[in-house]
Amino acid sequence: MRVGIVGLGRMGAALSRQALASGHDVVGYSIDVSEARALEPDGLVPATSLDDLVGQLRPPRVVLLYVPHGPPVHRTVEGLAGLLDPGDIVADGGNSLWTDAEDHHRRLADLGVHFLDIGTSGGISGARHGACFMVGGDAAVFEVVRPLLVDLAVDDRAVIHAGPSGSGHFVKLVHNAIEFGMLQAIAEGVELLVRSGRDLDLPALFDNWNHGSVIRSWLVELMGQALADDPGALHELSSFVEDTGEVKWVVEWASRQDIPAPVVALSQQMLMLYRDGHRAPTTPMAKAVALMRHGFGGHPLQPRGP
């Protein structure tokens, strides 16, 4: 398949490399020209604009979006709306609000252009070596892109048609809500261990837990690996934790539906605290969350201030 990818940052670049390694042709566009140039040695065909990207694709065109949610996605969809033909497909693979996906679906449907919302999980390493995809939109349109997604996924069970428009982004954001709760629980465990007064080998302990224990998981693995790679990280890092805010949408929706979600709500509030420069805790808990988020998503780490 010859596919267009708009947005060549951490996720877009990794997925482009995975697509190229799987034998697909990729035409890529980014407002940061250097991102496209960095992928040219891998075989990516750079585009200088959305118009140029569309012109280099054959109908029915498939264009994947990996740009930040909100206005950047809206602008990109509107830009493509005036360039694509009936039967073409636009798929937003970022963490967008599910109601935005429903709006884009309706907007493009009036033009005969299809829209899919694709929840993408697996972090940067998953994007490069096999991700997980949850897709919302028309089932027949999903089947058109399914072979491509299977090639980008860790296996064929990692690609699911979640339901009609908006479903892919909704289930992905619930997934992220679960993730935030797990991050906070692991981070609290790190805090308890560090402040126990015991001489514990934390990397070895987390490695032990990831072999057969009830809490074994990739997040536990990432936590142990981060501590092994930099034993001083819990002392040297800032307590600031990047938060792009998407889980607030789940918390707000749950509140409107009178659905209690105390763990998710508290984990979101803790992230708000972790990035508050005036009140942020200096304890290992926040730093543990930062280490895990860096491990799977490449979220930047910040050194501890004076």
Summarize the structure.
The protein has 306 residues and is α/β, with parallel strands linked by helices. It has helices at 10-21, 33-39, 50-55, 71-81, 98-109, 123-129, 139-152, 167-194, 202-209, 218-229, 233-236, 247-256, 262-274, 284-297, and strands at 2-6, 25-29, 45-46, 62-65, 89-92, 114-121, 132-136, 159-163.
Describe this structure in words.
With 306 residues, the protein is α/β, with parallel strands linked by helices. 52% of the residues lie in helices and 12% in strands. It has 14 helices and 8 strands. It has an 8-stranded mixed sheet, sandwiched between helices. The longest helix has 28 residues, at 167-194.
Query: Residue share in helices?
Result: 40-55%
Mean pLDDT: 93
Low-pLDDT segments:
none
Helix/strand-derived class? alpha/beta
CA gyration radius, whole angstroms: 20 Å
List key phrases describing it.
alpha/beta, 306 residues
What topology emerges from the helices and strands here?
Elements: E1 2-6, H1 10-21, E2 25-29, H2 33-39, E3 45-46, H3 50-55, E4 62-65, H4 71-81, E5 89-92, H5 98-109, E6 114-121, H6 123-129, E7 132-136, H7 139-152, E8 159-163, H8 167-194, H9 202-209, H10 218-229, H11 233-236, H12 247-256, H13 262-274, H14 284-297
Parallel strand pairs: 1-2, 1-4, 2-3, 4-5, 5-6, 7-8
Antiparallel strand pairs: 6-7
Helix pairs in contact: 1-6, 8-12, 8-13, 8-14, 9-10, 10-14
